[in-house]
Amino acid sequence: MSPSLPRWLWGIGLAALALRLWISIALPISGDEAFFYWWGVYPAWGYSDHPPMVGWLIAAMRYLLGDTTWAIRLPVVLLPTAMGAML
Which residue, among 75, 60, 73, has the nearest Cα to 28 in the 3D structure? Predict the structure, then answer.
């Protein structure tokens, strides 16, 4: 069995998640995010310069949560947090 993490470390992780969620709501979409957004609007099996997973995730979030800034950015906030928790 692995030792459990201290509570303060969980607190830092949750605070970082809350900050990333707040930033995803507060700031407008710009630059590369606009490019990724269009992948979600027109999902395909792949594009000449990128694989399809980013577009599929954005399309799924748009379908489930609507066409909002925070819904489009939600995979980018939650997936790294989940990967960090698994490590």
Answer: 73
Model pLDDT, residue 2 = 57
Which pLDDT band, with edges at 50, 70 and 90, does 15 fall under? very high
The pLDDT score that the predictor gives to residue 51 is: 80
The secondary structure of the chain in percent helix, strand, coil, rounded to multiples of 5, reads 70, 0, 30
Of 10, 31, 13, nearest to 80 by C-alpha is 13
Q: How far apart are CA 85 and CA 59, in angstroms?
A: 25
- What distance in Å separates the CA atoms of residue 73 and residue 87, rounded to the nearest whole number? 22
Q: Which amino acid is present at 20?
A: R
